[in-house]
Write a structure and sequence with these properties.
By secondary structure, the chain is an all-alpha fold. The protein has a single domain, classed as Methane Monooxygenase Hydroxylase, Chain G, domain 1 (Up-down Bundle), CATH 1.20.58. About 90% of the residues lie in helices and about 0% in strands. It has two helices and no strands. It is elongated and about 40 Å long. The relative contact order is 0.14.
């Protein structure tokens, strides 16, 4: 049963990774815009979201 669950998680991860990469790209663009506009609040919020995406990516690629 454990092997079935792991196989399902791998398939789920295969679908999630490309979406997560797009979300990271979008958030990086958002961060860039915030930096250009010197919007420190938006920069902080964007960095927090990027950190969450990074942690998720590490878990999915493990």
């Amino acid at each position: 049963m454990k092997q079935v669950i792991e196989a399902y998680k791998r398939k789920d991860a295969e679908k999630r990774i490309p979406v997560l990469r797009l979300e990271i790209d979008y958030e990086l663009a958002t961060l860039h815009d915030a930096i250009v506009e010197s919007d420190t609040e938006a920069v902080g919020a964007s960095k927090e979201r990027l950190e969450k995406y990074r942690q998720e990516m590490v878990l999915l690629e493990a």
